[in-house]
Write a structure and sequence with these properties.
The protein is an alpha+beta fold. It folds into three domains: 109 residues, Orthogonal Bundle (Butyryl-Coa Dehydrogenase, subunit A, domain 1), CATH 1.10.540; 110 residues, Butyryl-CoA Dehydrogenase, subunit A, domain 2 (Beta Barrel), CATH 2.40.110; 116 residues, Butyryl-CoA Dehydrogenase, subunit A, domain 3, CATH 1.20.140. The chain is 52% helix and 16% strand. A four-stranded mixed sheet has the order 1-4-5-8. The chain has a four-stranded antiparallel sheet with strand order 2-3-7-6, with no helix packed on it. The chain has a two-stranded antiparallel ribbon with strand order 9-10. Strand 2 and strand 3 form a beta hairpin. The relative contact order is 0.12.
Length: 354
């Protein structure tokens, strides 16, 4: 694999990368193909990562994490994604979107009883924000939580494209409307909802990033209490946006890891392939492709790590750099992977459909 080198990395980062790589080889690599081909959800792998503090490394060790910074967490997702993009997404959702949100905004009971179990992979969490009506326009969500006497709330509505939302989630952080739709982001509240019969899950079959339990969720008169409010009433939109800012760096890290894996496989293929009575690596066009791919990967690396450092150093424009990292990584990463498929030709296509 391509070595991970950057001036921002410390000895602690390097040691952590070695641990994540070892765990990925032991637990992810043996099931990576099964995840893709069979839409297999790797529950046991999640537990193993959790046991070693890698599932939510941004958390303190006493809460089941590794005490890493945002850069270290991005590095872990990058390394994991070299072995499986699906596992990269699962660690992003479990660690960044769910566990860290409960740790940062949850009450004492959530923080002490729920967070360590999520970080260790003993419980699975889902981040329920997107809806059939609203993807990017999260302020327009329609799922409602209506107040009822005795400190209770009743939740009704649908959520769409929810990772781990089907048969796997034990708890959900659910974003609901607690005021008029015209109020948009000013009337959104996040709730902890535990798995129960009021939640119907319908699997969504996706083309890529399989094995993640992506589902549509329907909430039918789900009753929660005041103690289940995450943060404050009508302040849930901030929680969602802060989580997604971290999530953007995570998605960029997934793309970086996948791109590195694609280049590694393509390079191995052309090194061992002959055409026109010579190794393919002697052909100038092949060399140009490999050079471009490497340049794009190192560009992605610099931008992703820089965005993570903006978070760690608490720069005011951290959110903008998170978006820049996601946009740039996706654009360049898609091109790296496209070139890798071209370099390996029909063998790449055969590997996909066989």
């Amino acid at each position: 694999m391509i070595p991970i080198r950057h001036p921002s990395l410390t000895k602690e980062h390097e040691k952590f990368i070695e641990l994540v790589d070892e765990l990925s080889r032991r637990f992810i690599e043996p099931v990576a193909d099964k995840i893709d081909r069979e839409n297999y959800y790797p529950r046991e792998v999640i537990r193993e990562l959790g046991k070693n503090g890698v599932l939510a490394p941004i958390l303190p060790r006493e809460y089941g994490g590794y005490g890493m910074d945002v850069l270290g967490t991005a590095l872990s997702i990058e390394v994991i994604s070299r072995y499986s993009g699906s596992m990269g997404i699962l660690t992003e959702v479990q660690g960044f979107l769910v566990t860290d949100a409960f740790y940062t905004y949850g009450n004492k009971q959530m923080k002490e009883e729920l967070v360590p179990k999520l970080a260790r992979g003993e419980l699975i969490g889902s981040f329920a924000l997107s809806e059939p009506c609203c993807g990017s326009d999260a302020a327009a969500i329609e799922t409602k939580a209506e107040r009822r006497g005795g400190g209770e709330w009743v939740i009704n509505g649908k959520k769409m494209w929810i990772t781990q939302g089907g048969l796997y989630a034990d708890v959900y952080i659910v974003f609901t409307r607690t005021g008029p739709k015209e109020a948009r982001h000013r009337a959104i509240t996040a709730f902890l909802v535990r798995r129960n019969k009021c939640i119907e899950a319908s699997p969504i079959h996706v083309m890529g990033i399989r094995g993640t339990g992506t589902s549509e969720l329907t909430f039918n008169d789900c009753v929660v209490g005041d103690d289940d409010v995450v943060g404050k009433v009508n302040e849930g939109f901030k929680i969602a946006m802060e989580a997604l800012n971290l999530g953007r760096i995570a998605v960029a890290s997934v793309t970086l890891g996948l791109s590195e894996a694609a280049l590694t496989e393509a390079l191995e293929w052309v090194r061992n392939r002959r055409a026109f009575d010579q190794p393919m690596t002697n052909l100038e066009w092949i060399q140009f492709q490999l050079a471009d791919m490497m340049a794009y990967i190192e560009t992605m690396r610099s931008i992703v790590y820089d965005a993570a450092l903006h978070f760690d150093r608490k720069y005011e424009d951290y959110y903008a750099f998170a978006s820049i990292a996601k946009l740039t990584a996706v654009l360049l990463g898609m091109d790296v992977i496209r070139r890798a498929v071209q370099l390996t030709g029909l063998m790449a296509f055969g590997a996909i459909v066989s």
